[in-house]
Write a structure and sequence with these properties.
The complex is a heterodimer. Chain A is α/β, with parallel strands linked by helices. Chain A has 18 helices and 20 strands. In chain B, helix 5 crosses helix 6 and helix 10 runs antiparallel to helix 13. Chain B is globular and about 65 Å long. Classes of the chains: A alpha/beta, B mainly alpha. The interface between A and B is medium-sized, with 31 and 20 residues. The complex binds adenosine-5'-triphosphate and magnesium ion.
């Protein structure tokens, strides 16, 4: 069991723009283990694994697979050695079917439906082979990726932050699969920055920080505190101090709101609530219960079919996002790639998106004043501790977490009155999460209103002054977090109304009409 | 002229008018499916047409002429593909370069080879003969086969899957070991070779002449056709047929004395464009280009 299958020695990677992503990393994986690769945003986890899977070439360093020295020029060479990677932002062709994605790149004679079906049967990873990938939920897409790699007889499977976009149930299923694959003798490298997950499924852990290995340990001997300290380089406060809220006026009022989803079905069914200045109002719930549509309707990105949105005392139903911004609304979107950033534009350009018409950025000929803009971008970079090669680097070259920080930094630099934050810490490491959570509390203490939508229940409980649980487009109840037990919240997330639970009657699921 | 004769005339005319458009459009569809845009179709037709005349006249063998045209197209495709896929150069600039080079190069070439300014007609022996009985070019038949073959290649084979994947999401292709750059280069060569065939068809078959206006905008019409056809070879064949038909009809009406007196010729010339646009826009609606088309794929 103890034979080393992957050995990477003194790996250095310098990107063409001069970013040093890896500064001499030694990395070792044993056959048949689940190995956790832990590290903050920008630590170099993805870079290291892209090198192992042949997509990037190291600037220097050596790789040994089962004792033999290798040097991959492409992913196909790595695949021949049994190494395959499932990427952070899945690498599938959306316009292809699941089947086409699985057999892509294989010679025609090696593509066999029966064999894929047999493989799905054996591993329990079921996917609809003829459905278009773009129509499938994230969890299923990920299964397609895993099957794709297994079908290529991969022995070493790399998963890059596989749980980021999964619901808790999907995560459980994934872990089950991983353990199953381990039993079949596969070696798995599991990249994450979630301590709980790494402790739950791995056998050994390597911790990266800023391009260096800062720790190796057996999972059995590790504690969350110790790992967090290694990752961040200092003690991390896992609990956030919060003064009691001093709520003021209602600044965001939603009245009997009805919104449809992309398929034309009702996603938000007559919601009414108010968010007061100086408070954080949290919305919890399993993803896909109308949270996305609610946020989009409030921020002017989706049509309100019925009902009203009132911002700072003004009816803003179905107004454009730029009008809403002028009235003091800012939006931290959940999908930073789709809504938050233009990846091919520079950090500077991204830092003024939406506020590019402000006087201070414009010269007399309506020309953009780049010096002022660069300064603005530098301020955000410093204030939010963003690791970026420079203000003129494309947003694409930032690591996932740093991209998110850039979005948050820009939105908060607009000095808003009402902040709508949707999954603001998704994909962020411990330090960045801590930072952004503290920041939201700071904004609250300054008298701003925060509407927080998150699938992370801990986040909602920790930050909210009042919270609601959303189920199928309705609120199951609104309460203070301290008034609710975990069990009660769990029931509400499953569709039981708060009144039913507290009345002590035998709970009946809320009518899901 | 009898009614039947007129109809046959128009059908035959259509087969000629559509052939170069469809060939170039199919070629462009293929390389755009792989993510490479080549706006140099006009230039490739022109240079290939020129080379086809030179080769056919030198050997008095039209078959060699056609081969020369195809090879010239393939060679230009090789250059364009290398610049865009491997050197990650700008697709539009490279294509523009081909068009500009063609204009100057061929004007100079005509003068250098034949010592005339701007216009040369090859001898009959250099011309591709029509099929027996009907007045239709063998290249038209080849074009139909190429359309069907390309369609099959794109949608029914693992090669086609690779080509389309590279144009939709090169990263997805990359991680399963598809050599993105090589697929793009080969697709571009194939596309340009078909456009080269279109050029040879113009110069030593249909028009049997070489001038520096040989393609007369057909390269650009083919580009538009790619869009109309929603990047599908079969639809491109349909679109080409429509355009060829209206073009032939327009030519025919244009020459009727009664019409000539009333409607200016230049206005008549717009008929095929407007008619095709109207029909196609009504039929196809919104088209969706390959998601990654025209963008250089960089790994780091
Ligand atoms: N294509 C690129 N060009 C230049 N620099 C890059 C590029 N990709 C990543 N980097 C930089 O390399 C460093 C390591 O990035 P990497 O993506 O490996 O981090 P990570 O550990 O995967 O982070 P995350 O958890 O945010 O995904 C970062 O500083 C990042 O900005
Ligand atoms: Mg990463």
């Amino acid at each position: 069991m103890n034979d080393v299958i992957v050995q990477m020695k003194n790996i250095v990677k310098i990107y063409p723009d001069g970013t040093v992503a890896l500064r001499g990393v030694d990395f070792e994986v044993r056959k048949g283990e689940i190995h956790g690769l832990l590290g903050e945003n920008g630590a170099g986890k993805t870079t290291l694994m892209k090198i192992l899977s042949g997509l990037l070439r190291p600037t220097s360093g050596e790789i040994y697979i089962a004792g033999k020295k290798v040097s991959f020029k492409s992913a196909s060479e790595a695949l021949k050695h049994g190494i395959g990677m499932v990427h952070q932002h899945l690498a599938l062709v959306p316009a292809f079917t699941a089947y086409e994605n699985i057999v892509l790149g294989l010679p025609g004679r090696e593509a066999s439906r029966e064999k894929i079906e047999k493989l799905m049967e054996e591993t329990g990873l079921k996917v609809p082979l003829d459905a278009l990938v773009e129509d499938l939920p994230f969890g299923v897409r990920q299964r397609i990726e895993i099957i794709k790699m297994l079908y290529r007889n991969v022995d070493i499977l790399i998963l890059d932050e596989p749980t980021t976009n999964l619901t808790p149930i999907e995560t459980k299923e994934l872990f089950h699969t991983l353990k199953e694959l381990k039993k079949r003798g596969k070696t798995i490298i599991f990249i994450t920055h979630k301590l709980r997950e790494v402790l739950e499924v791995t056998d050994r852990i390597t911790v990266l920080r800023r391009g260096r290995v800062v720790g190796r340990t057996e999972t059995a001997k590790a504690t969350p505190e110790m790992l967090a300290k290694m990752m961040v380089g200092r003690e991390v406060v896992m609990k956030i101090e919060k003064k009691p809220a001093k709520p003021g006026e209602p600044v965001l009022i939603v009245k009997d709101l009805w919104v449809k989803n992309d398929l034309g079905e009702w996603a938000v069914k007559g919601l009414s609530f108010a968010v007061y200045s100086g408070e954080i109002f949290g919305i919890a719930g399993v993803e896909g219960n109308g949270q996305t549509e609610l946020v989009e309707a409030i921020t002017g990105l989706r049509r309100v079919e019925k009902g009203q949105v009132i911002l700072m005392g003004k009816d803003v139903t179905n107004r454009s996002p730029s009008e809403l911004y002028r009235l003091g609304l800012s939006h931290i979107p959940e999908d930073r790639h789709k809504l938050g950033l233009v990846l091919d534009m520079t950090v500077s350009e991204n830092s003024i998106l939406g506020i590019h018409r402000l006087k201070k950025f414009l010269g007399s000929l309506l020309n953009l004043k780049w010096r002022v803009i660069d300064k603005h971008a530098r301020e955000i970079i410093e204030k939010f501790e963003i690791v970026a090669p420079g203000t003129r680097a494309p947003a694409r070259s930032l690591s996932g977490g740093n991209q998110q920080k850039l979005v948050v930094g820009r939105e908060l630099s607009k000095s808003p009155q009402v902040i709508v934050a949707a999954q603001p810490t998704r994909g962020l490491d411990v330090a960045a999460t801590e930072y952004i959570r503290k920041l939201l509390i700071k904004m609250r203490d300054k008298g701003k209103a925060v509407l927080l939508v998150s699938a992370d229940l801990d986040e909602i409980l920790q930050l909210s002054d009042r919270m609601a649980v959303m189920y199928e487009g309705e609120f199951m109840g609104i309460a203070k977090p301290e008034e609710l037990t975990e069990e009660r919240i769990g029931l509400m997330m499953g569709g039981y109304k708060m009144e039913q639970i507290s009345a002590g009657t035998k709970p009946q699921p809320a009518a899901s009409s | 002229m009898s009614e039947l004769g007129m109809i046959i005339d128009i059908i035959e005319g259509t087969t000629f008018a559509m052939t170069p458009l469809v060939l170039a459009a199919i070629g462009e569809i293929f390389n755009e499916r792989a993510g490479i845009v080549n706006i140099g179709l006009e230039g490739i037709m022109l240079i290939s047409g020129f080379m086809a005349v030179v080769a056919a006249e030198a050997t008095l063998n039209p078959f060699i002429g056609v081969l020369a045209g195809v090879a010239t197209g393939a060679f230009i495709g090789l250059i364009h593909g290398y610049i865009t896929a491997y050197l990650k150069g700008d697709h539009i600039i490279s294509g523009l370069g081909i068009n500009l080079f063609a204009l100057g190069g061929v004007a100079f070439g005509i003068e250098a080879v034949w010592g005339v300014r701007g216009y040369h007609t090859p001898p009959d022996a250099a011309k591709v003969p029509d099929l027996p009985v009907i007045n239709i070019s063998p290249i038209f038949i080849a074009m139909i086969l190429i359309v069907i073959g390309t369609h099959y290649l794109l949608y029914r084979t693992s090669i086609g899957l690779k080509v389309r994947a590279v144009g939709e999401n090169p990263e997805a292709a990359d991680v399963v070991g598809v050599n993105v750059e090589r697929v793009q280069l080969l697709a571009t060569i194939y596309g340009a070779a078909l456009t080269g065939l279109a050029g040879a068809f113009l110069s030593i078959d249909w028009l049997t002449a070489i001038t520096k206006e040989l393609p007369a905008g057909r390269g650009f019409i083919a580009l538009a056709l790619v869009n109309f056809a929603n990047w599908s070879p079969l639809l491109a064949l349909g679109g080409g047929l429509l355009f060829g038909f209206f073009w032939t009809l327009g030519e025919w009406i244009k020459n009727m004395a009664a019409v000539k007196a009333v409607i200016p010729v230049t206005l008549m010339n717009t008929i095929p464009y407007i008619a095709t646009l109207a029909v196609v826009a009504g039929l196809i609606g919104k088209s969706r280009p390959p998601r990654y088309v025209g963008r250089p794929y960089k790994r780091e």
